[in-house]
Design goal:
Elements: E1 4-6, E2 11-13, H1 27-37, E3 42-46, E4 52-54, H2 55-71, E5 80-83, H3 90-99, E6 104-106, H4 113-123, E7 127-131, H5 135-141, E8 148-153, H6 162-166, E9 189-194, E10 204-208, H7 209-212, E11 224-227, H8 234-245, E12 249-252, H9 259-269, E13 273-276, H10 278-285, E14 300-303, H11 310-319, E15 324-331, E16 335-341, E17 351-352, E18 357-361, E19 374-379, H12 391-397, E20 404-412, E21 418-423, E22 428-430, E23 433-435, H13 437-444, E24 450-460, E25 464-473, H14 481-491, E26 502-505, H15 519-528
C-alpha cells in the first residue's frame, strides 16, 4: 500500500479512501436493493439445522420483522437486543434493524446474568431476541424494565418466538416496502457491540452506518465464508455484512469451534475464505484430518487477534496451498486499522489501510518517529459516537482532535509496518522496569515444541510483576521448563523479562470465543498449577 510519512507532524497515512456509495445512504436501503435484485443468491447455510437462505427468503423475513418493529414504535432512538449463537434467524433480525434504522445491541450468549444485566442496563433495549437456552438468564437480567423477549432459536412452549414475527401479514408486500432513511446522516449508530472486556467489564461500542459501508473488501458473490464469531463480535459483524452487502455465502453453526469440525465444514461446503484466531490455527495444524487435499477449496485465509509462532506459520503454508494470506490489526472502536498481505514479516501487523492515519505517542504526549515504542493512536477519518451512554469513558479513549488512544504499545518500522508489542494496560513492571508479556511470548513461540503460550505477571509486593509462562506443548513433543526459561534468558537480555516465576504446562489456555487470551484467568490457572521442571 502507498503509505506516506509526514516527518513534521510525525503521522503515517494510508492511501485515500474511496467509495461507490453516497455516505448518507442507509445501509438498510443498500441491502434491501441488493437482496431484492438478486433473489436466488444463497447468502447463508446453517450446518446446525440445514436451512439454506437465499436473498429472497432473507429479505422477506427481514421486512416482516421490520414491520413488526415499526408497529411497536421502535425507531432510530430505540435499541433491539440480540443474545444468540450463529443460528438461522439472527441474520434477518439484524437486517430488519437496518431496514428500520433501529440499532441492535448484540451481546454474547456466554455472558453470565450479572454481565448481561450490566450491558443491557446501558442501552435498555425495548425488545430482545435470544436463544431459548438463555431465556431465563435474559429475563432475570432485564426484569427491572421488562423488555419484550422473543426466542430466536430453540423455542419454548408458550413463549413468543421468531416464527410469530415471520408469519404473512396484511402489510405491504416486500417489493413495495420502503426502508427507513437515516435521520442523522451517515454517522448514525446502527449497531452496538461489546468491547473485548479482557481487562474488565466490557463497554457498549457504537458502530455507525458509515463504518459498515465498505466496497473494497476481499469478498464477492462467489465467496463461501466462515468465521466462528457471532454477530456480537466485530469479526462476526463483518461476516454478517459480507453476506447481506456483498452476497457472499456465509456458513454458520451453533457448534463450538474445533479443528476437526472446521476441516469437516471446509470439505462439506467448499469454503473459500475463513477468518481464524492464532489458537484456532494452532489446533488445525495439529489436527490429523487437516491435509492440503481436505483444505484445497480455500483461497483466502485471514488471521488476527494474536501472534502466530514461526512453526505454525510454516505449517499453515504446507496445509493451505495457493491462497492469499491476510492479517491485520483493528479494534471495535476504530474498525480495521492496518492490513498485511502474505506471511512475510510475521511479527508485523501491516500498514495503515485507506483513510487511516497513525501516530506513536510517548507518555508525555510527544509524537515519535520510526522504530520508537509508544502508544498507538489512530484516526480513521470517520465520526465515532463513542461508548453508548458513557461520555466519560469516551473522552478517555478519544481526544478532542478525534484521535483514538488504542491502549496498545507498538512502533512503526522503516518499511512503515506497524509492530504491536502489547496492551498498554497489560504492561508489567519488575523492580520499576516496564516489560510486556507479548515480547516474552514471541520468544517462547520460537521453540518448535511450543504450540501456544500465555505469559502472566505474578504480583509480588516487593518486586512487582514476576513473569511466568503458561505453556501448551505440541502433541508428542517434549520440552522442559528449564529449556524454556533458558531460551528466554538467552533471547531477552533484560533481566526483568526473564521467567522468574517459572513455567507451568497445561492442556488448555483460557481464551474467549474469538481467540483472545484472558490473562486474568490465565494468572489464576498459573497459580493453581504445580510448577513442572
Amino acid at each position: 500500500m502507498n503509505v506516506t510519512w509526514d516527518s513534521t507532524e510525525k503521522i503515517w497515512s494510508g492511501p485515500p479512501r474511496t467509495s461507490m456509495y453516497n455516505k448518507d445512504t442507509s445501509l438498510g436501503i443498500i441491502v434491501f436493493n441488493t437482496m431484492r435484485n438478486y433473489p436466488k443468491n444463497v447468502i447463508q447455510i446453517s450446518d446446525t439445522d440445514g436451512i439454506v437462505v437465499t436473498n429472497e427468503m432473507a429479505i422477506t423475513w427481514a421486512v416482516r420483522i421490520a414491520q413488526q418493529l415499526k408497529k411497536r414504535g421502535l425507531d432510530h432512538q430505540s435499541v433491539v437486543g440480540i443474545v444468540a449463537k450463529n443460528s438461522t434467524y439472527v441474520m434477518p433480525v439484524g437486517v430488519a434493524c437496518l431496514l428500520n434504522t433501529t440499532p441492535f445491541h448484540a451481546v454474547s450468549p456466554i455472558f453470565d446474568e450479572a454481565t448481561l444485566k450490566y450491558m443491557f442496563e446501558i442501552t435498555k433495549p425495548a425488545m430482545i431476541f435470544c436463544d431459548g437456552e438463555v431465556y431465563d438468564t435474559v429475563r432475570e437480567a432485564t426484569k427491572d424494565w421488562s423488555p419484550e423477549i422473543i426466542i430466536i432459536s430453540h423455542p419454548i412452549d408458550g413463549l413468543p418466538s421468531i416464527e410469530n414475527m415471520l408469519a404473512q401479514t396484511n402489510d405491504l408486500p416486500v417489493m413495495l416496502y420502503e426502508p427507513e432513511p437515516l435521520k442523522n446522516g451517515s454517522d448514525q449508530t446502527v449497531a452496538i457491540l461489546c468491547s473485548s472486556g479482557t481487562t474488565g467489564l466490557p463497554k457498549a461500542v457504537c458502530i455507525s452506518n458509515s463504518v459498515l459501508i465498505e466496497d473494497n473488501l476481499l469478498v464477492n458473490g462467489e465467496t463461501i465464508f466462515f468465521v466462528n464469531s457471532g454477530i456480537d463480535w466485530i469479526s462476526g459483524l463483518w461476516a454478517f455484512m459480507f453476506c447481506i452487502l456483498f452476497g457472499s455465502t456465509r456458513i454458520i453453526s451453533e457448534n463450538p469451534f474445533s479443528a476437526e469440525y472446521f476441516v469437516q465444514l471446509v470439505k462439506k461446503y467448499k469454503i473459500t475464505y475463513a477468518t481464524l484466531a492464532p489458537i484456532q490455527l494452532a489446533a488445525i495444524c495439529a489436527c490429523k484430518d487437516a491435509t492440503p487435499f481436505a483444505l484445497s477449496s480455500m483461497r483466502n485465509l485471514n488471521y488476527g487477534g494474536g501472534i502466530l509462532s514461526q512453526a505454525i506459520l510454516l505449517r499453515i503454508q504446507e496445509l493451505f496451498k495457493n491462497i492469499t494470506y491476510t492479517s491485520g490489526y483493528g479494534m471495535t472502536e476504530a474498525g480495521m486499522i492496518t492490513m498485511k498481505i502474505g506471511v512475510q514479516n510475521a511479527a508485523t501487523a501491516g500498514q495503515p489501510i485507506p483513510g487511516v492515519r497513525l501516530r506513536i505517542v510517548d507518555e508525555s504526549g510527544n509524537s515519535l518517529g520510526h522504530n520508537e515504542v509508544g502508544e498507538i493512536y489512530v484516526h480513521n477519518g470517520k465520526a465515532w459516537n463513542g461508548y453508548y451512554g458513557n461520555p466519560n469513558a469516551t473522552r478517555q479513549i478519544r481526544d478532542s482532535d478525534g484521535w483514538i488512544h488504542t491502549g496498545d504499545l507498538g512502533y512503526i518500522d522503516n518499511d512503515n509496518n506497524l509492530n504491536i508489542i502489547d496492551r498498554k494496560k497489560e504492561t508489567l513492571k519488575y523492580q520499576g522496569i516496564h516489560y510486556w508479556p507479548t515480547e516474552i511470548e514471541n520468544a517462547i513461540l520460537e521453540l518448535p515444541q511450543v504450540k501456544a503460550v500465555c505469559v502472566v505477571g505474578v504480583p509480588d509486593e516487593l518486586i512487582g510483576d514476576i513473569a511466568g509462562a503458561l505453556v501448551l506443548k505440541h502433541q508428542d513433543c517434549e520440552i522442559s521448563a528449564k529449556e524454556i526459561i533458558d531460551h528466554v534468558a538467552k533471547r531477552l537480555s533484560l533481566f526483568a523479562k526473564h521467567l522468574h516465576a517459572g513455567v507451568r504446562f497445561t492442556d488448555k489456555l483460557p481464551f474467549n470465543s474469538n481467540g483472545k487470551y484472558v490473562r486474568k484467568t490465565a494468572l489464576e490457572m498459573f497459580k493453581a498449577l504445580n510448577c513442572q521442571e
